[in-house]
Amino acid sequence: MRYAIITDIHANYGALQAVDNDVRQLRTHRNETIAYWFLGDLIGYGPDPVECIKWLKNSADIGERWVPGNHDEWLLLPTKVSDDAWTSLNKHQLALQEPKNRLYNNWFKAEVQTAIQEEARSLGRIYGETLEALFVHASLQLSQRRMLYLHPWKKHLISDIFGLLGREYHKQPTTVLFCGHTHYPMWFRDRQLQPLAYGKRLPLAKGIHIINPGSVGQPRDGDPRAAYLLFDPEEPTVEFRRVVYEVTAVADRLLDNGYRQSLADRVQTADGKGDLQEFYTVYQRPQWDLDVVVKD
Question: Which of 15, 150, 214, 247 could form a disulfide with 185, with the two C-beta atoms 3.0–4.6 Å apart?
């Protein structure tokens, strides 16, 4: 059994379909079972909230292997957000309130509400003989579970989470925290940033790991391909993957449906702007893989 860990779909059904097709092909060609783990933010920004909710409910065979993100929570409890997030949130509310979509609207909101109220549904866990894996949208702390940005260049925050993992969760030789929210891929092992090689099984050595697979529907690391990760808790290994999809078609759908130009531009460029420049201080891209920046 391996897990396809996906996060930050953001109502981009084109990207989600590409990832789902990639997983289906791997199941066939490698003759193995691959189940999903979803780390939240199904909605927000993109043009296809209903299609993504339908996938989660009807096609993903995911059960309770998912946790909500901050955009999912904002659907229930709107708060002060960016103009891009607010514009898309309003459009998603209207789409979900249409009579034909009420079943999916009610189901998704009930699921998110349960996860907000029950801590166990916002922190997923898998136990093995020598490994424990934890699944959150953003961070371990309950008050910041859907909001803390663990960017790889924020070493003080990363160090704090390593300390928390070591004190409260490191009961097995290998402990892995999988998180999303930032839209940037990342892999730390025992506070040391690790290079990423796409499409290769990478061993999880003993110790504590923090891993972000990157975003399916709205990457911000300068690479517009959909990002996700395969996790094998038995070996144990991880495999970072990127999938090409029709980015321009999604951008056109955003503009045709009255979304902001900035959202269409971001889907096509994966430009995190100021944050992207910070990302390049810790990771560099010689081709498609990501190497750690070596500082003098």
Answer: 214
